[in-house]
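ugh ok fine here u go
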Amino acid sequence: MKEYNKTMRTNQGAYAVHVVDEVNDINYIYIGSGFLGDRVSGNVSKLKRVGHANKKLQDAYNKFGNVKVEILDVIDRCENEKIVARESEADWIKHFRRVDGVVVCNTDKPTVTSEPYARKLDEYKVREIKARLTSGEKLKDIANYYGVKVALISKIKTGLRWAYIE
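structure:
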């Protein structure tokens, strides 16, 4: 298990949510992937609010009342990090399905595409967008020009996306 730290909050990766039946020594586990900062806190919060999408995991939590999140894999920044995280998730699901005393709550295998996600924006376009934002151009006009949603342009403006681009 990798130790969770603040630098992982913005990294993609694979994680496991464990709910343990200590009496019968059974580990109910849900494997997922995505931005670890969102996933680590989000899964625990959803279980506590009785709102987790995975019914089998939610039922186990309701019955046994304990939860632990484990970081399984942290993906270094790369062009196709989301795909790499999904592939890692699929590998971990296969692994845990072979372990005795573990009930994998995932209903099916994650979707892994062989082709990298085709981004509409690249670093050059983001630099253009940031220049246009600085000049005061409207978000809607910029979004229409690049064929993206206004929300993405807003996230670029606030630094939630492409923050490392000057």
